[in-house]
Write a structure and sequence with these properties.
The complex is a heterodimer of chains A (79) and B (269). By secondary structure, chain A is mainly α. Chain A has three helices and no strands. The chains are: A mainly alpha (79), B mainly alpha (269).
Chain lengths: 79, 269
């Protein structure tokens, strides 16, 4: 799950055709990262990858949210 | 008033910037309060992140869900319109109550899964939610997406939005409802922090927030000028949710809190 979180965090930063995909990837990645980190902690395994995934998803969520809101604001002002 | 701010030549939406600032300030407040009460910072931070995810999903889902219900109930009228127009009507902007409900649901699911006591966590998060909401409302003012009723020219509480505002009509003095609500939320957050630090009864902070904010929001709705957000009968969507929130707060305080606090006292060494 930690690796999935990392991958989704990177995907969320990719400029995709629809701005909504970025936040969706980041949110799913964040949830997987938290669950993965908790699982690793319970099993006594290293939590590094999951933590990295969480941090990347937080950054990509923040950036993709700004992009999505910028696009939405542009559409509304153009209408 | 300032929908975009230019940083290194890139136009950044101020509403998004305020949302992120609110989230950061909220986390900082949670960190300080959790440290004061010697809670596990890592567990609290993970729960906070889950809350944020649930909050974002809830914030963008509530209005479309309610509009879907409205379209379904009045399908005979809506089926005559072009599909694109109906879809555009359904997809809406972010709503605070949706975020609150979404965050709460996410927190409940998370706490049940990892067997974490939810009531003390809710009390810890609530002052932070209030302060994040206050900062978010400043973002609403900057973007011009939420606005109040028309006011007389030169009124001290009125603001005139420029043509580049996201939703507010320009050139007309409108009540500065987002800023008024931001000030009230900041005051509420301060009171909630004091209650959190002083009160030993679990559930007090959450109850005070539910009762006070729902009442505030109910009356603030009468001064909102952007009624395109939805009205059912004599009440707006937010007023209906405020009534539900008020009743829920009372049920929580009188129904659940005595049991929770009795269990904590019996488990204490």
């Amino acid at each position: 799950m930690g690796i999935a979180s990392l991958v989704l965090g990177i995907l969320a930063l990719v400029p995709l055709p629809f701005p909504i995909f970025g936040p969706i990837c980041a949110i799913v990645g964040l949830i997987l990262g938290v669950v993965g980190r908790n699982q690793a902690k319970e099993q006594g395994a290293p939590t590094g990858i999951a933590t990295a995934g969480i941090v990347l998803c937080i950054i990509s969520l923040a950036l993709s949210l700004l992009v999505m809101l910028a696009c939405a604001a542009c559409v509304v002002t153009l209408l | 008033m300032l929908p975009f701010i230019s940083i290194f030549g890139i136009d950044i939406p101020t509403y998004g910037l305020m949302l992120l600032t609110g989230a950061a300030v909220a986390w900082l407040l949670i960190f300080l309060l959790a440290r004061k009460k010697q809670s596990d910072i890592e567990d609290v931070s993970m729960a906070f992140l889950i809350c944020i995810c649930g909050g974002l999903v809830g914030a963008v889902s509530l209005r479309p869900l309610m509009k879907l219900v409205e379209v379904a109930l009045a399908w005979e009228r809506y089926k005559l319109l072009p599909a694109g127009e109906v879809l555009q009507y359904i997809i809406g902007e972010m709503v605070f109550y949706g975020g609150l409900l979404g965050g709460l649901c996410a927190l409940i699911i998370y706490c049940r899964k990892y067997k974490i006591k939810i009531a003390p966590l809710i009390d810890l998060f609530i002052p932070a939610i209030a302060i994040a909401h206050a900062i978010g409302r400043i973002g609403c003012h900057l973007a011009g997406c939420c606005y109040g009723i028309v006011m007389p020219h030169g009124h001290p509480l009125a603001v005139v939005y420029p043509p580049n505002a996201i939703g507010a009509p320009s050139g007309i003095p409108l009540l500065s409802i987002p800023l008024i609500e931001a000030a009230l939320l900041l005051l509420l957050s301060t009171i909630l922090v004091v209650i959190y630090l002083k009160s030993k009864y679990i559930g007090t902070v959450a109850t005070v927030y539910f009762l006070v904010y729902s009442t505030l929001r109910f009356f603030i709705e009468y001064f909102r000028g952007d009624l395109i957000r939805g009205k059912y009968g004599i009440f707006t969507t937010s007023q209906i949710i405020s009534i539900v929130m008020l009743v829920s707060g009372l049920v929580y305080y009188f129904g659940f809190c005595p049991r929770i606090n009795k269990r904590e006292v019996s488990m204490a060494p």
